[in-house]
## 1
Amino acid sequence: MNTMLFSPYTIRGLTLKNRIVMSPMCMYSCDTKDGAVRTWHKIHYPTRAVGQVGLIIVEATGVTPQGRISERDLGIWSDDHIAGLRELVGLVKEHGAAIGIQLAHAGRKSEVPGEIIAPSAIPFNESSRTPKEMTKADIEETVQAFQNGARRAKEAGFDVIEIHAAHGYLINEFLSPLSNRRQDEYGGSPENRYRFLGEVIDAVREVWDGPLFVRISASDYHPDGLTAKDYVPYAKRMKEQGVDLVDVSSGAVVPAAIDAYPGYQVPFAELIRREADIPTGAVGLITSGWQAEEILHNGRADLVFLARELLRNPYWPYAAARELGVKIEAPVQYERGWRF
Ligand SMILES: Cc1cc2nc3c(=O)[nH]c(=O)nc-3n(C[C@H](O)[C@H](O)[C@H](O)COP(=O)(O)O)c2cc1C
């Protein structure tokens, strides 16, 4: 049978062998606390490449030390990080997958000791620190840090860059009126709240001509927050700026109860794809081959991102192929186990 899940997908000149993406997942495994790639990363990511994932997106990687979620995050704030990342890229590519990296700044959700920064001096919840409201100089520096990160990602050989604008981290904090109360040109109207992301995209695009994804939180799950409809004009703007795909997640800008069920974020990806006419990625409780195929075949998204299922089973693509009755290439070493 001809499935979409196992058909190649080309985006800005990069051809993925299938439409299965490993969603970025923090491993909190830099025990040296310097952002450097460790043995864990060199085993964890290539294992999913052996498992036949088409595109692997490396976890949220800090563009500044203070922009990490924790001290154990990966980093890309120094040229010293390039060699380790290049080795990781080589290992993943050697085993047949494409590889991307998620460039991130945690903003007010950073748990790294010291000062934390955000668009406004509002803490995430009662138990979190109050961030410093960013000055114009802080904004400029942070945009520059994203650009430097992109340049280093290119030097390390990544195929894809994803900008993390979701889950209540710094860029999302600018976008949402719940966390952005600024009075200047970076706050207030929807256009002003987009300005920071717009500047980050332009800065990254100056040094990066490969596929560019942006991950968003399409719903704040709050009556005064953003909804997927609010993201349609934003996604149109992203497309004009040269973004190739919007990776549609949701939530976490403020504490909120989320009713999560299989495919709960897919309608957001579908709406943005249709209304903004831009490729989207669907993510969230996607666990079976037929579920993934339905999303693609009904034109609800262009790529499916899997997170926890790929922690449980790094060989999920093989299991999904079997479910859909598709024969996929197996690593020669595993052929006797993968034959059916
Ligand atoms: C251990 C873990 C770490 C995660 N880290 C990140 C991250 O670094 N960046 C990100 O955008 N999402 C992160 N997420 C969210 C996942 O990428 C994904 O969007 C979410 O888990 C829903 O997909 P799933 O139901 O397939 O797990 C993480 C999730 C898990 C379980």
Note: The longest strand covers residues 55-62.
## 2
Amino acid sequence: MNLKPVKVGLIGSGNISYTYLNTLTSGFKIVEVVGCSDLVPEKSKARAELFGIRQMSTEEILADPEIELVVNTTELWNHNKVTKMILEAGKNAYSEKAMGHTLEGARANYELAKSKGLFVGSAPDCYMGAAWQTARKLIDDGMIGIPLVAYSQCMRGYGANEQGGGKHPDPLAGTHGTTITYDMGGYYLNVLFNLFGPVKRASGFSKNFNGGRTYVNTQHPDYGKPFKSEGGESIMLGSLEFESGVYGCLVLCAEGFNPEVPRVDIYGTEGILTLPDPNNFGGWMNNVYLTRKGNPGEAFKVPFTHGFSDTDPDAPARSGNPEPCHNSWRGIAVVDMAYAIRRKREPRSNGDLALHTVEILNAIDSSNVDNQVHEIKTKPARPEMLTPGRYGQVTVMESSIDNINVS
Ligand SMILES: NC(=O)c1ccc[n+]([C@@H]2O[C@H](COP(=O)([O-])OP(=O)(O)OC[C@H]3O[C@@H](n4cnc5c(N)ncnc54)[C@H](O)[C@@H]3O)[C@@H](O)[C@H]2O)c1
């Protein structure tokens, strides 16, 4: 069946817009990117020229009756605000992670989408990538027996205030919900959710660690003085109990060193899965290893059963500039949402999952304050696996996303 392509607009033509536009213009039949906007017109102009789409204002995107789905790649503290604008304009919304920097704002958008019969979803979608779908299949096929414990950690070196390359001038940057916990937590929670389904209870600790830090850049006007923190959490240790009975652990720390140390290990009754960085889709050192009971010394590197692995990280981006995550498939959940619109089914990365992630992070923060274990109210359905064995051209991999009619 030939489905009418879903017209897509993008708001926020900064760093990560590159990989979204690269993915969405790479030949998927179900999406047609119309244009992109930014508060800084030079940025949207550059992206529009590179990808052969229209430079638009945000108002033009929201008023365009043909655009059905809008991608929000603004900064984390703008997600709630811009997603609300998209939904109020009567369009389906997909935002970068997290869905919002406050649970209240995210929940309000969830309710707004429901009341309008629209979809709202958020990144990360790396769980749809080759490594994570392969891990999912191994678990579903019983290769590690009954999964018992999932250990996940992200040690990343960027301090309490910074999201990547330094303190952003926006006054919200570095405040609660804009630091490593909400910035990176979703990568880990989404891959664990893909493997085990929703979290039932969460508790833990979180804090802003700023002790003893000083400005180390000799050119900085405050060199040597104490580092000013906006108070957002920079270290989190979460305990998770999944509905399926698996116990999980989430460690996020912004005081790591380079290189970043990501880990996801799954221990089961019959084996161990050693999994790659959840910030990636798979391949190029991001592999899946299986250790089976009875042969503890040998970890097999498991060939991927699914498409959508990362492309060569050393191959230059189309822009010729360094672009973050340029070799990834970020945006395939937008493709899935486009199919969901046409098929009238739920997207894999739907509002329940987006809100679930924020609710878990909020629960861990709350637990730190009230010493309680928190029941998680959102109960998203575990997303359907992509169809295995579909490698190759984009259109072949595309059919693995739209597996609803595959026999
Ligand atoms: N940079 C990365 O490596 C990376 C990787 C993965 C995910 N992300 C996530 O992507 C999001 C964006 O990050 P980024 O690094 O691309 O940020 P960025 O600052 O480079 O880009 C954000 C852009 O949004 C624009 N913007 C803000 N409000 C707007 C509005 N109302 N209308 C139009 N444009 C608006 C800003 O002008 C800015 O150009 C964040 O949530 C971030 O966590 C970033």
Note: The longest helix spans residues 351-370.
